[in-house]
Amino acid sequence: MQDAQFAPMRTGRLFDQVGAFLDAHHLSPDPVHYCFAFAVVSAPGSALARRVAELTQGGVRLKRLDIEMLGGRVVGDGAVELARPEADPIDDRAAELVEETQNQVDGFAKMVRDMRAETQGFGRDLERSAAAIFRVPQIAEIDAIASITTRMIARIHDSEVRLAQATEEADALRTKLVEARETARRDTLTGLPNRRAFEEAFAERDADAGPYCLAVCDIDRFKRINDEFGHGVGDRVLSAIGQAIAAECSPHLVVRHGGEEFAVLLRGMNLVEAADLLDNVRATVAAKRFRNRDSDAPMGQITFSAGITAIQVSDTVETAFARADRLLYTAKNSGRDQVSAA
Is 157 strand, coil or helix? Predict the structure, then answer.
């Protein structure tokens, strides 16, 4: 016999509640996510539901770390915003192929250039030899040799033309591969570098150029913007905020890390200096007044919150990002539109 606690859930209301939960936390309708959502909404008096209510008080969205701490799991690209988004193995392999292909093309282009230089030198030598032979008159053998040499020169000339074409094609391919590598490291929506570019820069940071700090910024109540104005306007807001942060933080690296989240890698600043910079950026963005360009209607104030931490020499990108992410949600839980540093 079914427990009375679940009796009201026989209607479609449970399905609607599960769907609303998934949407609120930007989780895809994957069975793993659905099971977690079902466990929360079907038993509102359970310890799990109470803990979720505590974590999401004030409209805060569950993070991957929260869900996993509660015994759930985030799979695939289920959450728009993850504490540490997993790398896409297909994207990683594509990047590796681009790298391998570019190395091959570089080697091929060098080989073609070397061959072309050798062929040109050989052709000049044959031309000089043919000219000398033609200066010796009335010798049939010499005529035959000259004829053969003339044909060889023509063949070499054709080879030079083909090698020149191959060189141009190889150079064009190398240029396209460089563009492909750049594209693989750039967010198509905002035009900013992406998570891959951030992770590469983090791994390649120069200890002698430090100290380094990491800031994680998240647009406050972004779901309201999408719900009220539509995803097209939301995309434009994302781009505008990202570009504003990048302009104010220049020359430091600003990337779109995922969803409405941006990461900033600050070099040559201690934590106090970096926090002051980010707070100034926050204030600049908060002072802007956005309007919907489709209707010219005001959109109200749009703000972001940030968590910022000093990067230690022993930090991996995962540990540093997780620390900054926790500070970000300290700022969110403290009222938003602020910077939390530690």
Answer: helix
Question: How far does the chain reach from its first CA to its final CA, in angstroms?
Answer: 53
List, for residues 115-160, the tens digit of each pLDDT value: 677 666 666 666 666 666 555 555 555 666 667 677 777 777 777 7
Between 187 and 95, the higher pLDDT residue? 187
Distance in angstroms (rounded) separating the CA atoms of residues 273 and 292: 35
Rounded CA gap, 188 and 195, in Å?
Answer: 12
Specify the DSSP element, H or E, that contains 127: helix 89-134
260 is catalytic: yes
Q: Count other C-beta atoms under 10 Å from residue 28's C-beta.
A: 15
Q: Are 145 and 132 in contact (CB under 8 A)?
A: no
| Half-sphere exposure in the Cβ direction for 310 (13 Å, CA) | 11
Task: Say how far apart CA 325 and CA 322 lie, in whole Å.
Answer: 5
Q: Are strands 339-341 and 304-310 parallel, antiparallel or unpaired?
A: parallel
The residue from 81, 199, 248, 260 that is catalytic is 260
Instruction: Please list, residue by residue across 61-84, b when 16 or more beta carbons sit within 10 angstroms of its beta carbon and e when fewer do.
Output: bbbbbbbeebebebeeebbbbbbe
pLDDT in tens, 29-66: 777 788 888 888 888 888 788 888 877 776 677 877 77
Q: Is 24 helix (H, G, I), strand (E, B) or coil?
A: helix
